[in-house]
Amino acid sequence: MSHTPSSAPVAIRFPVITLILVLVVTAISLIGAQNLYFRGDYKVFFEPDDPQRLAFEEMQNIFNKSENVAFMVVPSDGQVLKPSTLMLVNELTEAAWQLPLSTRVESISNYQNTFDDEGDLIVEDLITAEKLSKEAIANIAQVLSRSPEVYGRLISRTTDVTVIDTTIQLPDGDQTQQVIEIAEAAKQIKSHFESKYPDHDIYLNGMVIMNDAFAVAAQQDAETLIPLMFLLIFIAIALIVKSLWAAIFTLVVVIFSVAITVGLTGWLGVYLSTATVNAPTMISTLAVADCIHIIVGAKYYLNQGLANKDAIKKSVEVNKKPIFITSITTAIGFVMLNFSAVPVLSHLGNMTAVGVMLACVFSLTVLPSLLTLRPLKPSVSVNNSVFSTWATLVNRNHRTLLPISLLVIVVISLFATNNVLNDVAVKYFDERSSFRQAVEVNEEKLGGMSNIDFVIYTDQSYGVTDPGFLKQIEEFSKWLRARSEVNHVLTFTDTLKRLNRNMNGDDQNFNVIPADGELASQYLLLYEMSLPFGLDLGNQIDIDKSALRIIALTENLGSRDITTLEREAKDYFASLSDDYRIEAASPPLMFAHIGERNMKNMVWGSVFALVLISILILFALRSIKLGGISLITNLLPAAIGFGVWGIISGEINMALSVVISMTMGIIVDDTVHFLTKYQTAREHGSSARESVVYAFETVGMALTTTTIVLTIGFAVLASSSFVLNAHMGMLTIIIIVAALIVDFIFLPALLAWLEDTKTAQKES
Amino acid sequence: MNFLSRIVLITALGCTASYGLASEIKGDEKAIAIAKERKARDTGWGANEAKVLMLLKNSQGKEATRKLEVKSLEVKDDGDKALTVFESPRDVKGTAFLSFSHALEADEQWIFLPALKRVKRISSQSKSGPFVGSEFAFEDMTSYEVEKFSYTFLGEEEVNGEACFVLKQVPEYDFSGYSYQKVWIDKSHYRVQKVEFFDRKESLLKTLYLSDYKQYKNKFWRPMKSLMRNVQTKKSTSLITEELTFDTDLQESDFDKNRLKRVR
């Protein structure tokens, strides 16, 4: 931009040089893009020092890892216990060993059935291809119903579905490549068996498949939403400014802004994720808003009879300040996402902030350059009469409009209290995702796939076979099983009871925990010696037999319910005795806690954004009174937005906690433009009412257009199959539209009323 | 089950070769010749007794130990017999485990639990499970028999400063946990220096390093240290032979299930 006010900006005087310069910068930035990589694992949502993540990782270090791929087999006739399905389970169990990085495969088929045979202890696979006679299957059914370790977990209690669970040992660090390969291999196994056994559906779930679903969601968003975004922008601009070239030029600005942002992200070594894959969509949306101001302005001055270059120059001059202020406030709002406890949301904030500032620069340089090279044609001027009519209407009825609108705002805002923090990772995917479909079937047939793993530390070697300890574990397991939200409890006490029974001639009276700790230890030794590869107890008992893991499978509980269960379970355990230490951890718990922590952090982020943006507005408007008014009108839309959200959904996930900060910078735009014009008119001696009319006439159209463009942009985001992105898009739209309505009804009514009270005060 | 044979007894100078199923061994000639020589050099040792320390480590370096006493008896043309008595941890002290290992069938196993005061026969086809929570599977610890595998000669390589033959051996037992193993056998004494174990999807699962070989009776070589590293879970187990005596007065009758109760 020029430093000599008399001459035109560099961008207009030397358009070709400007464009080449920007192209070079873009090319250099884009070299960084080759460093970009995508991370699809769920851990991108957690800081490395997140307490729940640390607890979970500690648990994974002590016990075998529990990342898994689960094949859920659903026979169409609703009966697993028949030769064909059991053959399938048998073969699928074998095939699952072929999944890359698999370390353990568990199913009803390789379940190690133990029983007494005239004093001998028999240990064998429950289901083998040779033993599928009617009597054998009846026996299998009986064994399963008496085996609490698998009943309700690897087979539903109504025996209509069965699960083959494969444990995967993923490497540390970036696992996306492996996850995609494993998921691909699992899909092949699935389709092979579905075609070999026609009357069976196989569904894939488990943590590895969920990680893959993150990658799939991101890929879908990148492949569909970003092109859709570009298309919509193109159409919107072409329609609004009625110029094909204007649309192309806007796209160029958008592409430069996005390309450099993405390139810089690569240079900085930041990875892409399901959240940041939509940063381009947000940047594009905000960049378009800048361009519209310049293009509409240029056309306005062309219509006024100015030469092309002069019209562009004038438009840049007039719009420079508002575009700059809006961009800065928007960037501030996004930078405040760094307060978030979710790393990928911070990344999203930083990327968008950079993109917005780039868009600001390019809309003031590249766009004028392009417009210089390819001039716009003047066209019919925009009809502003509807806005002045509206202004007059508001002025006349402000005494009714103000209390009514205030009442409506308050009532809607009250619904915000309906909102509850809720992060359930398996529900982050909408019905289009095959993972979500598997989640739904799992929920229907097995009651859900959430879990809490409890680890109880005795802090002494072979402490887990101490009778006192086992008794407490037994009580605790009973308590867990009595909870309605708990579907299955995997506890070592069941195994010990079974062994005690087996070793005593399968006498039911011995289906109890051995009273002697040494006996329990020796059973454990005996049992461990007879297990095949991949079915050891390393997932339940640690290396020196001092800690035990109990796995509770639960319904797909919301954040509040699962943390309640966690807390009450710990309390109950502590009420039994304080001899042992208990910890709880699991990915669902990590997600359950992140919402709360993120919200707490974002409250500060939002307050900080508010303070910074207010200072900027005060600076721009140079009036405490107008600054105050602008603050109110900027906060109301967020209140309305969350109120509306409380009515239509009520569920706040981690991505929604950041929306206040994010939208604050965007909606400030409206009030700043409106109040600047209002102020100008007042300074020229107009009354408040006249000034409102003037403000409406000059910026009413621009505000409406940007709101439409932003709505379109965020609507694209709202159509993401990834719920975090979709909800973020939806709530943003609600807030942006609310902001426009507030500025069109509440704000002018307030200004008129303030004038009245002032006059009244003077008169009295 | 000959506890140490895979680990401790793997190699030796032999006098009498085993001819039993020789004609049915599958694989290339050179590899089979090496395998037979390996077995031949470890034949005729008779019986021995060892005190062994087992050191388990998880990926975080947390440790646990077990102490065992192992008596082994060589059986011609079949897997060996082994009697393992646990010395520690305290809770399982006195637990005795008797096994007759077989090349291609399930092993015969009996266990005496002192707390139960009873001998139990365990019938299990699996030889692939971990031995007392260690990284050694049962099948890694039973005696080496030529018939257990089919062989391919892969080449020659130096390991631990010894020139070695490298063989690929595929288990013949249906219930093995491995798809194949890669074995490094030194040329000087036909001692195993290193073994790589590949799981069913043919990924490297574990590596066994054998070291500190000592010669007994002027013929038989035994490693005093065997380290098994699981490359997938990063866990490891060391077997350290603290004492090893040949020429004991062990007899066939000492390996009788009916005498298990009195082993101590």
From TrEMBL, chain A:
GO terms for cellular component: plasma membrane
Gene3D superfamilies for the chain: Multidrug efflux transporter AcrB transmembrane domain
Keywords: Cell membrane, Membrane, Transmembrane, Transmembrane helix
Residue ranges of the TM segments: 12-33, 202-218, 224-241, 248-270, 282-302, 323-345, 351-371, 401-421, 602-621, 628-648, 654-672, 692-718, 730-754
Compartments, record wording: Cell membrane
Source domain of life: Bacteria
Pfam families linked: MMPL
Protein's recorded name: RND family transporter
Extent of the signal sequence: none
Originating species: Alteromonas portus
Start and end residues of each SSD domain: 247-373
Membrane topology: Multi-pass membrane protein
Automatic annotation (TrEMBL), chain B:
The Uncharacterized protein TP-0789 domain, residue ranges: 80-262
Entry keywords, A to Z: Lipoprotein
Record keyword Lipoprotein present: yes
Alphabetical list of Gene3D superfamilies matching this protein: Lipoprotein localisation LolA/LolB/LppX
Protein name: Outer membrane lipoprotein-sorting protein
